[in-house]
Amino acid sequence: xxxxxxxxxxxxxxxxxxxxxxxxxxxxxxxxxxxxxxxxxxxxxxxxxxxxxxxxxxxxxxxxxxxxxxxxxxxxxxxxxxxxxxxxxxxxxxxxxxxxxxxxxxxxxxxxxxxxxxxxxxxxxxxxxxxxxxxxxxxxxxxxxxxxxxxxxxxxxxxxxxxxxxxxxxxxxxxxxxxxxxxxxxxxxxxxxxxxxxxxxxxxxxxxxxxxxxxxxxxxxxxxxxxxxxxxxxxxxxxxxxxxxxxxxxxxxxxxxxxxxxxxxxxxxxxxxxxxxxxxxxxxxxxxxxxxxxxxxxxxxxxxxxxxxxxxxxxxxxxxxxxxxxxxxxxxxxxxxxxxxxxxxxxxxxxxxxxxxxxxxxxxxxxxxxxxxxxxxxxxxxxxxxxxxxxxxxxxxxxxxxxxxxxxxxxxxxxxxxxxxxxxxxxxxxxxxxxxxxxxxxxxxxxxxxxxxxxxxxxxxxxxxx
Length: 466
Ligand code: 8LQ
Known about the structure:
Blueprint: H1 30-34, H2 37-58, H3 60-69, H4 79-83, H5 90-99, E1 114-119, E2 129-133, H6 134-151, E3 158-161, H7 169-180, E4 184-186, H8 195-206, E5 210-213, H9 215-227, E6 239-242, H10 251-261, E7 264-267, E8 280-281, E9 290-292, E10 297-302, E11 315-322, E12 333-334, E13 337-340, E14 354-355, E15 359-362, E16 367-369, E17 372-374, H11 376-384, E18 389-400, E19 403-412, H12 417-432, E20 437-442, E21 456-458
Parallel strand pairs: 3-4, 3-5, 5-6, 6-7, 18-21, 19-20
Antiparallel strand pairs: 1-2, 8-9, 9-14, 10-11, 11-12, 11-13, 13-15, 16-17, 18-19
Helix pairs in contact: 2-3, 6-7, 8-9, 9-10, 10-11, 11-12
The structure holds ligand 8LQ.
Ligand 8LQ binds near residues 245, 268, 269 and 272.
């Protein structure tokens, strides 16, 4: 079997809960992480039909889907055949949960095995529910512990989890991994009134080695610290790992956080459905972008029209396949995000492909303006590098006739407004390729997000969200 050289590689997955790597090893599973990628792919190609057969046999959702596509799970023995497996889209999952409440007919495990229920906030549509099995929860924790080890977190370290513990799976995933790694976990949370300000005191007191949040939250925390004359460098945080939105791989955001906290920023995260969502993650020795830990979740970057994997070096949309989940397994879940992947030597020695600049954003959030594609993160990156930027902005998209226009309202905290406006206009012109109107407003004009930021205000009639 192709997976013989891989530590604890079996289906269904299960891990020795007492295992910890050699303390001097940078790797949790040295073979799995540094093996010849072709050998790893061969093992993955043996696993895929097992997972697909399992989903087909245990869920009406996948049976229906594959019967309709005329697909026999046992025939998925080549990459070409795998590329024909129809993608799953989130709308289908939502519909399945409406038709077969509360968790849809893609659960695959008996109700008695459900261990955790989670849900999304539903800000972008009907909320989705997750029903995660006991075995899966353990495997998720193991995988996240392994990835945290790769980031440089070690047993005994204090891990401060500073994100929502309600309708957000991110915090729970970070916590479960840190617990399995035998860390001291502080499930601090976020979202209740006054918590950000109080976090300053708790961080000073607990001096955590690692900290988890969304990038927006860390920026907010840095701002509150400044207002309250606290120096966040004194918290002694060595590793700040983030998921949930672009930011950790946006150079100006990353620099701002690294400087404010005197720390190392680590990007990670796929989608809540894809938990163990840290399967895309940077490491201690490969700090930029994210590595794709293919033996945990199989990541493809696909053409957004054909859903076929694009060659390394090209851009596309991530499509994810669980290799270890038995509850609500996702097979070729379409993210509708945008990224570029690459296969090159990684500084940490792991032989995984990577997304060298992370996930830029969602296809739907990309602004198409007179033949140019503009990512909201590019605008963020420009503004944050200009001295005096007040920390928040909004991008207003309008339409006059058949032409889209964008205007940026940016906060400024200084005395030379016209200088700032000039710098912002020319910086934006450089990255957008078009003249962009800039309106300068006072610092603190806009609300700060303590979860995921949304800075685009789309005023075009045809794209208005219902
Ligand atoms: N998204 C998530 N992580 C991202 C990252 N590192 N860079 C850019 N965009 C990212 C629980 C985890 O944080 C995953 C999560 O946030 O799940 P959600 O709430 O289902 O949101 C998933 C979306 O967040 C992705 O599709 C990306 O658009 C973004």
